[in-house]
Design goal:
heterodimer; A: 274 residues; mainly alpha; 0% strand; globular; B: 71 residues; alpha+beta; 3-stranded antiparallel sheet; 1 helix; 3 strands
Amino acid sequence: MNNGSFDNVAELEPACKEALYHLLIACADTKLLLGYHYGEWTFGPPEIEAAVACCSLCQAELGHVRLFHGVINKHFGDDPDELISGRNSSQYANVRYLDKPLTNWAELIAANYIVDLALTTLLFSLRESSFQPLQTNLDKMIQEEKYHIHHGQGWFRTLANKNTETKQAIEKSIQQAINDIFEWFGPENSPEDELLVSRGIKAQKNSVIFEKVYSEILNLSSQIGLDLDISKPDASKISWETWTPKSRRAGNDGPDDQILYHLKGSKNQMFVLS
Amino acid sequence: MIKEQIYEVFARKSHEDSLMHVGSVNASDEDLAKVYAWTMYDEENWVEMCVVAREAIIRVTHDCQIPVWGN
């Protein structure tokens, strides 16, 4: 195809094909876990409007998962049902922040503002991807994600300004989310990431995308005159030697079994058709 | 100090229609008001949706009074 673009992964060298597969799985898994947490918070937010919003955000994320799984199925042959129900915890590649239940509203908002924003910023870098099938779905996803970002920003401002207790709660959760997206984006100059950029699948390296997200947080804080007590993660504290592009984390843990139990619909296996 | 406000929501289904009042949402700022309006009143494929803070609305009639020129 023209301009180095392609619509069939068979045209890629094996290493790049594998890198693309890892990227798609990581995006789909993070969206799946985001959808789970938004869904959990359909009941319990501080106001009914936020409950409706969480329900809508959940619906959008699950829709995006289906789109990603469709691309993965068509180009890599994985069965979407198996991707959800056939893997164990250590085979997921989501942002670590989503591994555990989000037990208070500030934790959910940090997932919404930081994790969702990080993923959307990554999607933005795929908008003009040389991998044509991605382009087909991205505009719709990014359009929907605009509301997710507004929701995260709005509640970040609200909690940061409400009182000392809520400010400390959101700071703590935001810092954890920043640390976890930093790990998820991976080590500086990861060979897989550089391959994706050099092949035109991504426009920017993950380190650049992380910097964009971090700057956005500082800019928004500055706009509202907020002295936010957060810092950039120390890369030397992460055991990168155990980090893999497949799991996108150092170590071989993953989402809580209890969360996966619900995600997979394990309780209702007897009702599965076919 | 964060204060919640009521935002009135207006929308139209096609460019030929007039904007109509479809409801209201409570929100602590404009960003949240936009999200809440979009997610709460999503039963139609609106071509345009707007929110306006209720306190920004200039009343022509006095509260609970019939205007002097009739109703």
